Structure formats: C-alpha cells, structure tokens
Amino acid sequence: MAFKLTFLGTGDSAQVPVYNCYCPACELARQNASFVRKPCSVLLHLDGQQWIIDSGRMDLSELFPAPSLHGILQTHYHADHAQGLLHLRWGVNLRLPVWGPDDPVDFADLYKHPGILDFSQPWEEFETRKIQNVTITAVPLNHSRPCLGYVIEKDQFCLAYLTDTVGLPERTYQWLKQKKMNYCIVDCSMPPMPTTPRNHNDVTTALSMCEGLHIDKLLFTHIGHELDEWLMQHERDLPAHVFIAYDGMVITV
Amino acid sequence: MAFKLTFLGTGDSAQVPVYNCYCPACELARQNASFVRKPCSVLLHLDGQQWIIDSGRMDLSELFPAPSLHGILQTHYHADHAQGLLHLRWGVNLRLPVWGPDDPVDFADLYKHPGILDFSQPWEEFETRKIQNVTITAVPLNHSRPCLGYVIEKDQFCLAYLTDTVGLPERTYQWLKQKKMNYCIVDCSMPPMPTTPRNHNDVTTALSMCEGLHIDKLLFTHIGHELDEWLMQHERDLPAHVFIAYDGMVITV
C-alpha cells in the first residue's frame, strides 16, 4: 500500500527549545536542530493525496505549495494545533477541507473569516470517511476542548493518532480494543508526575491508557522540554515497544 | 540620537506571495525573496532597548533570543498583527510588557493564558510614555477593532506609525497636525479603489488622510499583492515624498 506518515512537529505548545529556557534539553535543541520540536502535527500520504493532521506549523504555505495539500484533519482548535490556519486561509482560488470536531467556540476569527478553508463537515464521534482507499475514523479524546483522534486503516494496516488527550474515554478505549494497531501515536507531554495531569498524558498515564490495547509500536509525541530532559536519563527504562517521535521521523508501509 | 527602525514585515494579512496566487507580484516574490512581504511589523531601537510594533511574525523567538526583546507595542489584536504571541507567551522566567489598546475581546485565549506576556498596562488615547529618553504617544485609528498608532519623538525627531487604519479620526488628525514629522508610515493596503474601503487605506485614502499634515517622508506599508501589481506600473506617478516600504528596510537617525 502507499502509506507514509511524516512528523512535521512533535512538540508541546511551548515547543523545544522553550523561549528563554536553558535546561539541558533546550540547550541541546539550540545546538543541534535535530532535537528541535515544532508544533505537533503529521503529514499523511494517502494513496497519492497529502493531508495533514493539525495545522500548528506557521509555514504551511511554504511547506505545501498549492495544490499539494488536499486537506486538514484537525484534532482540535487550540492555538498550537491550529495557528497555521490564521494565515493559510487568505489563499485564493482554492477550497481546502478542514475536518475537525464540532467545536462551537471559534479559534480567534477563523469561523467568521474562513477564507479558503471549508469547516462545513465536522466529524461525528466514530464516524468513518474514505480518503482514496484509506479509511479514517474520528474517535473522541479527553481534553479541555472537543478533541478527536484519528484511526487510519487500509487492508490489514492500522495506525491511531491520539493527541491531545489525558487517558481515553471508555467508549474510545472499547472501540480501539477491537483493533490490531501497527502504530499508536499518543500524547505524552510530561515525565511521570506525582498526580495525573489534567489535559495531557504524562509517561505514566500514556502507558496505562494503552494497557489492554493491541499495539505493535507505541510512539510518544507532543513532547515538552521537561520530558526531553527526563528521557536523557530514562529512555532505556521504557518498555521495548515504546518509541519517542522526532521532527522529520517517517513511517512507511 | 540612537534611533533605528527596521521593517520586519510590510505585508497585509495574506502576505506576499499570496497562497496559490500567480499574479505578477506573487510570482516575483516567489522568484526573488526581496519582494516577499511578511506580517506588518517593525523593530524599534530606542536608546539601546529593542521594542517591536506588532507581533504577527511567527519566528519572534528566533528573531529575538531572550533577553534581546524589551517589549511589544501592539496596534491591535487581529491575527496578522498578534499571532506571534500565541507561541512566544510560553517562554519562561521572563515578563514581557505588551502595551496595546484596551480591547475587551480576547485574541484566541491570549488574555486567559498570557504566559510571560504582561497585558496589564493598556494605553489610553493620546497617553504618552517614555522608553529610555524616547517619548511614545498612542493615537487612536479607524479600524474594525480598537487600534492605535504610535508617534515616536526624541529631541527634534518625530516618526508616526499609523496602521491599521482607513483615514484618521478627527481628534488624531488635529493632534498630528501640530507635529513636524520626519517620517510618517501609514497603512496603504490597496491600489486606488472606486469607493473608499472599510478597514484599510487604498492609495487615494492614504494620500488624502495625510493632506495638511507636515510630513517629510511618507511611507506606505501593510501592502497587499494587488497594490504591488499596481505599483509595477504606477509607482512613478506617486508624489515625490512617498516611498514604498519593504521587508528589511531600515530608517536610522
């Protein structure tokens, strides 16, 4: 099959390096660009079409000269996942589908002035759509705004992209439990915390939310600088099937 | 005196080139980066401090590694003038003054989650503040959101930065009329239009709003691709004291 996923960004809202932070992770990212983490997003190659999940990168118009981008799967409308739309919308002679959750709260004035963006087809929970011969299903997540994960399937291949979230809603967990996932990419923003965080997984919650699911490779994304610093000491302690995503990382099948 | 102004961006909200536009101005900008127009903003060097007017550039953290940026003069909170704050706010160990209009409507969730940004000192109309030995006055403009121009004075030098606006409120016009301006930088987004536009100057309105003011050099900024195309034929027809700003242009005194 012609499936390819490229990580356009694997950072949290602050990105790495964090402005004015001089922790070891931020210093390393300043010294070596391969440790930089931009806003969390991926590029999907789906049978010849290019779609992105999330639009937090601010250079989308340069990354994807028209007509190379077919559409956007939006997990939610927080700034670090949607800010690239603020400029991209002012293109011309084009209509770009943005399929996201049905969130009544506008992000800045995007709904009011959508420009070339077409927000008219929000997902229902567990709705399935076809892009070429690839099946996409939107699954609800736990976040401070309406937020969807995406499950991408073709033939025997299955990949889930689950961010931003802290744990999983029970209905999503039960739905995912029926799947055999080759890859599961999840929000893991923080090192293990004394208590479960409110809007994002720490390492503990990211691992526990996947217990009982059938996952070949579990990838962490949406990584903050404190987790990067923690990983410098502890990456080897993670289970063998867990990997840390990085900007530019590619999955091909 | 130690005054220097650098144009960080001279484009309108769509910037130049416009996404998916193949007009002569957009094609030229793609071929030659010196014709690119990024989000409208300037850098001010004020007696050793660096302040920017507007924060639409999305690479502020790279342009101004801390502590090189002292503060932000915000004309208003439309996306193309404020979107860079969405990321910059997540810096650490720093408090960055953002002096703008008293606009009760939040831009996305900036006021709710200001991070390192300090919005606590909005301007009153015609209020004057000192930055080092430079005097800054905020003057109201005509726009669809509360919007301020800034007049910068030191000794005999005077520079006004007036964008976004269509024409001038009478009280601002009368206030400016008393000044002898070395430079007046104004919103001029469009070529001459059959009727006066609603939120931005076209060439006709930009020129007429400055009639009767004492201006040595009048600079146009916030330039859209249609104006750039018009200028290819008509720049020579403009009055001799009118200049077109470009990204990277520097004014020193």
Strands of chain A, count: 14
- End-to-end CA span of chain A: 7 Å
CATH homologous superfamily caption of chain A: Ribonuclease Z/Hydroxyacylglutathione hydrolase-like
Name the assembly state: homodimer
Q: Report the helical percentage of chain A.
A: 10-25%
Identify the CATH class of chain A: Alpha Beta
Number of domains of chain A: 1
What sort of overall outline of chain A do the alpha carbons produce when their principal axes are compared?
globular
Major sheet summary line of chain A? 7 strands, mixed
Task: Please sum up the structure shown.
The structure is a homodimer of 253-residue chains. With 253 residues, chain A is of the alpha/beta class.
Q: Can you offer a commentary on this structure?
A:
By secondary structure, chain A is α/β, with parallel strands linked by helices. Chain A has one domain: Ribonuclease Z/Hydroxyacylglutathione hydrolase-like (Metallo-beta-lactamase, Chain A), CATH 3.60.15. Chain A has helices at 24-31, 60-63, 79-82, 85-88, 170-177, 203-209, 225-234; strands at 3-9, 41-46, 49-53, 71-73, 96-99, 117-118, 128-131, 134-140, 148-154, 157-162, 180-187, 214-221, 242-244, 250-252. In chain A, strands 6-5-4-3-2-1-14 form a seven-stranded mixed sheet, with no helix packed on it. In chain A, strands 7-8-9-10-11-12-13 form a seven-stranded mixed sheet, with helices on one face. In chain A, β9 and β10 form a beta hairpin. Chain A is globular and about 50 Å long. In chain A, 50% of the residues are buried. Chains A and B meet through α4 of A and α4 of B.
